[in-house]
C-alpha cells in the first residue's frame, strides 16, 4: 500500500496573501524609495533641472534658451547661470512666488521686460551679472520689495534711471561695476535708504556736476581704500584723471542746486493749473475778438445793402421865422437899399 503523498504549497499564492494582509502596502514603500523628492521630474522640480531638499533647483550650464516651465511655489533657489536665456518675457517666473535666490549670470541676456519679475515678492538675491543689458525698462525691479542684493555688473548699461530700480527699502548691496555709466541719475541713491555697499569700479565716470549726488553718497559711506583708489573720473576735454573721493561739496558750488521734493511738488501742482488758466484766458480773448469782428462785418453789410437817401429839395424854413439874408445882387436887395 502506498502512503498518501502531500503536495507542497506554491510560494506565489502565499506571497500574494501576505501582500494583501499587510497593513502598509509594500509597493508604496518601494515606489517612495525609487523616486526621491530631489530627483529630476519630481512634482516640485522643473523637468530638466536637478533638485535637492530645501527647495534648490540647479539648471546651470544646460544651454536652456528660456526659463524652464513647471516652477513650484516651494522653490527657494533657482540657478539658471551659464545658459542661453536671451530675453525674459512678462511673468517669466510665474508660479515661483516663494523664490528667494535667482541666478541668471552669463546668459547673454539682452532684454528684460518690465513685468518679468512680477510675483517674486519674496526674492532677496538677484544676479544679472555678465550679460548684455544696455537699458532697463521702468518698473523692472519695483515688485522686488524684499530684495537685499542686486548685481548688474559686467553689462553694457550707459544709464540707470530711478524708475527702473523703483523704491527698494531693503536693498543693502548694489553692484554696478564694469558697465558704461558716466554718472548716476539724480534721485537714484535717495530711494535706497538701506544701501551700504556700492560697487562702481570699471565705469567711465565723467568729472562734472552730474557726479554731485554720487560723491555726496561716497562721503557718507566711505569705501575701502583698495576700491576707492580705482574710482577715477575723466575731465571733459582733458586727459587727466581725478579720484571721486577727492571731491568735496565745495567743488560743486558752481553747479545749480537740484530742486527739493517740495519744490518739485509745487512746480508739478502749479504748472498744469497755470497752463489751464492761460488757456482759458486765451479762449475768452479770442472769442471776444471774433464776436467784435463779426458784429463789424454785419454792420458794414447792412450799410451796403441800404438804398441811398435822396437829397432834400425843400429845406426847412428858419425855425425862428426870420428870412435868410437876401443876395446883394437880387432886386429885393436893391429896393431895400
Automatic annotation (TrEMBL):
Write down the Pfam families for this protein, in alphabetical order: LRR_8
Q: How does it sit in the membrane?
A: Single-pass membrane protein; Single-pass type I membrane protein
Biological process annotations from GO = axonogenesis; positive regulation of synapse assembly
Q: Where is the signal peptide?
A: 1-28
- InterPro entries given for it? Leu-rich_rpt (IPR001611), Leu-rich_rpt_typical-subtyp (IPR003591), LRR_dom_sf (IPR032675)
List compositional bias (Basic and acidic residues) regions by residue number. 309-319
Could you tell me the superkingdom of the organism this chain comes from?
Eukaryota
Which UniProt keywords are present, listed alphabetically?
Answer: Cell membrane, Disulfide bond, Ion channel, Ion transport, Leucine-rich repeat, Membrane, Repeat, Signal, Transmembrane, Transmembrane helix, Transport
What GO molecular functions are on record for this protein? potassium channel activator activity; transmembrane transporter binding; voltage-gated potassium channel activity
Disordered, as annotated region: 302-337
- Which portions of the chain have biased composition (kind: Low complexity)? 320-337
Protein localization: Cell membrane; Membrane
Protein name, as recorded: Leucine rich repeat containing 26
Amino acid at each position: 500500500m502506498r502512503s498518501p503523498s502531500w503536495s507542497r504549497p506554491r510560494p506565489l499564492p502565499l506571497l500574494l496573501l501576505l501582500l494583501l494582509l499587510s497593513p502598509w502596502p509594500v509597493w508604496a514603500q518601494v515606489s517612495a524609495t525609487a523616486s526621491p523628492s530631489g530627483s529630476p521630474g519630481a512634482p516640485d522640480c522643473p523637468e530638466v533641472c536637478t533638485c535637492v531638499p530645501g527647495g534648490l533647483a540647479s539648471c546651470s550650464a544646460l544651454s536652456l534658451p528660456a526659463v524652464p516651465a513647471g516652477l513650484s511655489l516651494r522653490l527657494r533657489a533657482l540657478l539658471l547661470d551659464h545658459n542661453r536665456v536671451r530675453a525674459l518675457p512678462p511673468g517669466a517666473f510665474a508660479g515661483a512666488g516663494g523664490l528667494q535666490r535667482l541666478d541668471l549670470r552669463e546668459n547673454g541676456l539682452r532684454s528684460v521686460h518690465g513685468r518679468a519679475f512680477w510675483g517674486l515678492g519674496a526674492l532677496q538675491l538677484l544676479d544679472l551679472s555678465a550679460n548684455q543689458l544696455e537699458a532697463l525698462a521702468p518698473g523692472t525691479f519695483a515688485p522686488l520689495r524684499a530684495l537685499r542684493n542686486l548685481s548688474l555688473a559686467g553689462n553694457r548699461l550707459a544709464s540707470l534711471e530711478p524708475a527702473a530700480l523703483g523704491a527698494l527699502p531693503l536693498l543693502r548691496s548694489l553692484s554696478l561695476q564694469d558697465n558704461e555709466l558716466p554718472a548716476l541719475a539724480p534721485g537714484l541713491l535717495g530711494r535706497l535708504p538701506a544701501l551700504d555697499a556700492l560697487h562702481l569700479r570699471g565705469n567711465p565716470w565723467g568729472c562734472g556736476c552730474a557726479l554731485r549726488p554720487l560723491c555726496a553718497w561716497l562721503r557718507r559711506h566711505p569705501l575701502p581704500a583698495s576700491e576707492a583708489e580705482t574710482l577715477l573720473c575723466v575731465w571733459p576735454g582733458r586727459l587727466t584723471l581725478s579720484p571721486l573721493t577727492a571731491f568735496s561739496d565745495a567743488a560743486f558750488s558752481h553747479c545749480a542746486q537740484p530742486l527739493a521734493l517740495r519744490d518739485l511738488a509745487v512746480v508739478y501742482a502749479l504748472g498744469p493749473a497755470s497752463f489751464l488758466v492761460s488757456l482759458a484766458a486765451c479762449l475768452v480773448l479770442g472769442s471776444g475778438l471774433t464776436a467784435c469782428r463779426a458784429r463789424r462785418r454785419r454792420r458794414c453789410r447792412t450799410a451796403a445793402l441800404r438804398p441811398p437817401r435822396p437829397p432834400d429839395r425843400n429845406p426847412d424854413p428858419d425855425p425862428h421865422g426870420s428870412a435868410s439874408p437876401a443876395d446883394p445882387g437880387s432886386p429885393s436887395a436893391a429896393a431895400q437899399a
